[in-house]
User: What shape does this take?
Amino acid sequence: MRELQKQLPAPLEQTRELDPLRESALGLVSTRSFPAIVGTADMMVKSAGVTLVGYEKIGSGYCTAIVRGKIADVRIAVEAGADTAEQFGQLISKVVLARPLPNLDAILPIGTRWNEMVQGNSYSRLSNLAIGLLETRGFPAMVGAADAMLKSADVQLAAYETIGDGLCTVIIRGSVADVAVAVEAGMYEAERIGDFNSLMVIPRPLEDLEKTLPVASCWIEQHKPLLMPINVKEKEKQAEKELVELPDLAKLPASNDAEKELVELPELKELPKQKEQQADP
Assistant: This one.
């Protein structure tokens, strides 16, 4: 019995290590703008020790940022995110769940599997750069704003996002100064073409925010495995193993007498005299 009691706690500890967020709190903040939800998520991650799981977009422009962590940290993060969303005039709702049950984690997109799906085994060349987001109502306005931003400053077009209700967001990356100039130029162009909705500039995004933002495939560098030759033809193996037998030097035929004759070279001192004798008639 004592041996069984000692062995029982081990599986419980292993399950906790495999799923560290299983007993953590859950925090959600909802807005009606993609730049607003990204700015809200950035404030939530920077205000407390929480993990940004991802976003949930349900159409009509409604977006929700999802964070996990300790109860106290999640409460602080949700309040900070809600205040940020209220400043943008885009706050829809907020909620904090202390200990969500495993059934909730298994069905809803609120678990650690989202981070694994987004992160993958790739690296973006646009990492560690400032982020600029500009949202328009209508696709032509977004395309015109993107063109104006690329022409006005040294920025790169990373991706775009659509959340329904005609809302489209273009995402650019670059230095803080270039992103600020580009976003301003894109805003004026979007107002000229169609309907400008909102914008956001994030100078120093954290790693959690980097993992959740869309990035075009042209900027993603995937780790390529080193290819080594495994299967070699049998004939090539046999050819490598064959040894060439060298002849015995003692049994080689003797060289000809003509090859043994030495040619006597003239002395260098007599060479000029021969040239003078040849010159005189």
